Amino acid sequence: MATATTYGARDHARAQEGTRTEAMPVVPASSWPEPPCEASRLVWAETVAGGNYTHRVLARGTEFRLTDLHGDACAHLLLHHADRPWERLNVADTVKVQWNAYLGGGVLLLSDQGRVLASVVSDTSGRHDALCGSSTLVRNTERYGDGTPQSPSPAGRELFKLAAAKNGLDPRDLPPSLSFFQGVRVRDDGTLDFTGSAGPGGSVTLRAEQDVTVLIANVPHPVDPRPQYVSTALEVLAWRAQPTRPGDALWDTTPEGRRAFLNTAEFLAARGIA
Question: Which domain range does residue 182 map to?
């Protein structure tokens, strides 16, 4: 066997250089084959397999685009302030403050400090969820027979724990998440209607309005009724851009959003950042 010795294993490993599979990060990001902007501006280029996760710290003003390549991705998203991880995405406030339970273009992702962590710049999918969070070990074990990270059916929260640990975060730092590309609507009687995917190629672009740690778990939505564990590849691209500023249409879309941006600007100004 070629890998039976240390030298053989080394040679085998080195022979893989330059080999690409569908699901992997591309380093440097500027070598991504079809960049959405000037290639030199790319800072993150990765395809995340179904049942896997990724994470990255992004600077304020960075835009990042998630794309459901084959129609069955579900990107569960958490955001933490990169320097102050106790300030993190608050889904309840995101929904409550903006009087809107449904994600889409123009929605702001808020922390519990009333500040904007990220904004949704554009959306071609329209199938998202801010109500159900991600899957759990217990639930996936009941549904699929296993929910551990190394199993064929890992739970979203278990993958979030791994992504969190790689950024110095603990399980207690993991609040409820948002989900992109698998939709849920509330019926008149208060029950939930799973609307599923909009199909292959849907994308959502977000803009980091502060320095943020991004955690993503690409796993089936917890109320997906299909008995099988169905999860396909998610493309993640990020590039240097500019944060939302006064005068931008997004800043003044709603009174609540304008106040959240003002809260963010005041916080940044006090730190000498903006």
Answer: 32-270
DSSP string, 199-228: -TT-EEEEEESS-EEEEEEE---TT---SS
Domain-embedded: residue 6? no
Number of domains in the chain: 1
For the record, the structure tokens of 218 come out as: 């690409």
> What is the rounded CA–CA span in Å between residue 92 and residue 174?
14
Question: Counting Cβ atoms within 10 Å, is residue 205 exposed (0-12), middle (13-18) or buried (19+)?
Answer: buried
pTM to 2 decimal places: 0.95
Residue 25 inside a domain? The answer is no
What pLDDT, in 10s, does the model give residues 11-51?
887 887 777 777 889 999 999 999 999 999 999 999 999 99
Q: Determine, yes or no, domain membership for 75.
A: yes
- Establish if 226 belongs to a structural domain: yes
pLDDT (tens digit, 9 = 90+) per residue, 138-168? 999 999 999 999 999 999 999 999 999 999 9
